[in-house]
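User: I'm writing a tutorial on reading structure tokens. Could you give me a worked example: one chain, its sequence, then its tokens, then a sentence or two explaining what the tokens reveal?
Assistant: Sure. Here is the example chain.
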Amino acid sequence: MPDADNSRLVSIADFPNRIDAEIAHSALEASGIESFVSGDDAGGVQPGLWMKGVRLFVREDDADRALDVLKESS
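And here are its predicted structure tokens:
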């Protein structure tokens, strides 16, 4: 099993806002999958002003399972 600190992060989904990304993040965390939300929205303070979307990242090894979780939760 690869060292978790050396695992590559991959983007598995893009969301129009941080709220939707955080809901997906919570679903993954509840399934035991660590995830990371990254958005260019000033932490939600200026949504839409210059935002290009919010991305959800997981470890590359967890990507397939994470996509299955997101399909089930939608």
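What the tokens reveal: The radius of gyration is 13 Å. The beta strands are 9-15, 35-39, 54-59.
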